[in-house]
Amino acid sequence: MAQLKVTLIHSAAHRLPKQRKIVEALGLKRINSSVLQPDNEATRGALFPIAHLIKVEEVK
Question: Which domains does the chain have, with CATH numbers?
């Protein structure tokens, strides 16, 4: 199964509380921090509201 490498490229400070919670739930702490997440509908659904804050790469 493929995975997604999610990198925080913009700060979550001064964003909507829901967006800050999503960033925290994904395990992203600081700018340029990255995490690997499974590539499924739940993960992609969580990434959609914060798409302007992150960079997503597919890792095989």
Answer: 3-59 (3.30.1390.20)
